[in-house]
């Protein structure tokens, strides 16, 4: 039996906790052999969303098969947040020293840092906290804009939903990718992402503007990803001229509509390849006539 122990910090984000917990709960249903436990410095731990969480203050004795997760908490800045006792930090460090695996989601990386587990290791956290984590732990090697990083049984993730990706990866390492994929399907997860995937998708990176005309154009491109779209068609959908489409789209996103469609296609193709598709099959499925264009775009 593998115990997955969640170390709860006041102000914990519910999804930082619930995502990995659901993965291992589903693993227990599918393959068995997992139990979930929740520990903290007090028996009632407030979440940032207002739901009080029950925990035990007794820190269990663990073996090398067990996992300890530290979910993140609300933290525009890390300093002065996430209070945790020296006793809990020593317990966390002892588990790793004994051969166990420790993991964090978002600001939870700071707890691993306080326990001395980030020094000399690669790690990551939410993109808004990376600079501060680097300043607080100058001997750590902070990897930017990735979903999760594993280094010598210290596993850190970007935050919020990336905790699901991290947990699925740990399940895949223990039980194989088919089991992880089955759990992802059970959870209705759209895609099981790799650790080096960027924290923000192409869609999210170019949807932060406020131009409604460009949003309408993007809606058309995304809904017809595999189609050849002319500027004339996009202009009709946007209710403006072709020249205006090009000007507004470039100003809002920094690229042309064609480049945006290509970027979406490449990202989707990368996902298909990661799921086992050949480059040729992935290229056809996302709208390229053959794999040559996909290879050229990937090489960029």
UniProtKB/TrEMBL annotation:
<dbReference type="Pfam" id="PF01965">
    <property type="entry name" value="DJ-1_PfpI"/>
</dbReference>
<keyword id="KW-0804">Transcription</keyword>
<dbReference type="InterPro" id="IPR018060">
    <property type="entry name" value="HTH_AraC"/>
</dbReference>
<dbReference type="GO" id="GO:0043565">
    <property type="term" value="F:sequence-specific DNA binding"/>
</dbReference>
<protein>
    <submittedName>
        <fullName>AraC family transcriptional regulator</fullName>
    </submittedName>
</protein>
<dbReference type="InterPro" id="IPR009057">
    <property type="entry name" value="Homeodomain-like_sf"/>
</dbReference>
<dbReference type="InterPro" id="IPR052158">
    <property type="entry name" value="INH-QAR"/>
</dbReference>
<dbReference type="GO" id="GO:0003700">
    <property type="term" value="F:DNA-binding transcription factor activity"/>
</dbReference>
<dbReference type="Pfam" id="PF12833">
    <property type="entry name" value="HTH_18"/>
</dbReference>
<dbReference type="InterPro" id="IPR029062">
    <property type="entry name" value="Class_I_gatase-like"/>
</dbReference>
<feature type="domain" description="HTH araC/xylS-type">
    <location>
        <begin position="215"/>
        <end position="300"/>
    </location>
</feature>
<dbReference type="InterPro" id="IPR002818">
    <property type="entry name" value="DJ-1/PfpI"/>
</dbReference>
<keyword id="KW-0805">Transcription regulation</keyword>
């Amino acid at each position: 039996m593998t115990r997955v122990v969640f170390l709860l910090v006041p102000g914990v984000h519910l999804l930082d906790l619930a995502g990995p917990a659901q993965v291992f709960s589903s693993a227990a249903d599918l393959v068995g052999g997992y139990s979930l436990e929740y520990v903290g410095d007090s028996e009632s731990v407030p979440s940032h969303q207002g739901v009080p969480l029950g925990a035990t203050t007794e820190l269990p004795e663990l073996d090398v098969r067990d996992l300890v997760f530290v979910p993140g908490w609300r933290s525009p800045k890390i300093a002065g947040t996430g209070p945790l006792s020296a006793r809990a930090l020593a317990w966390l460090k002892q588990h790793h020293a004994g051969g166990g695996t420790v993991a964090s989601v978002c600001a939870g990386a700071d707890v691993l840092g306080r326990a001395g587990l980030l020094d000399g290791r690669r790690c990551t956290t939410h993109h808004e906290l990376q600079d501060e984590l680097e300043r607080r732990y100058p001997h750590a090697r902070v990897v930017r804009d990735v979903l999760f990083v594993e280094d010598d049984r210290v596993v850190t993730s970007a935050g919020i939903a990336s905790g699901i990706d991290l947990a699925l990866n740990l399940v895949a390492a223990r039980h194989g990718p088919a089991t992880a994929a089955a759990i992802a399907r059970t959870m209705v997860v759209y895609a099981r992402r790799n650790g080096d995937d960027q924290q923000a998708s192409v869609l999210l990176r170019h949807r932060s503007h406020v131009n409604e005309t460009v949003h309408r154009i993007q809606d058309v491109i995304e809904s017809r990803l595999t189609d050849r779209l002319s500027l004339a068609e996009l202009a009709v959908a946007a209710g403006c001229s072709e020249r205006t489409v090009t000007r507004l789209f470039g100003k809002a996103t920094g690229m042309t509509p064609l480049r945006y469609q290509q970027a979406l296609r490449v990202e989707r193709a990368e996902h298909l390849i990661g799921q086992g598709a050949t480059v040729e099959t992935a290229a056809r499925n996302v709208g390229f006539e053959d794999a040559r264009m996909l290879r050229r775009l990937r090489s960029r």
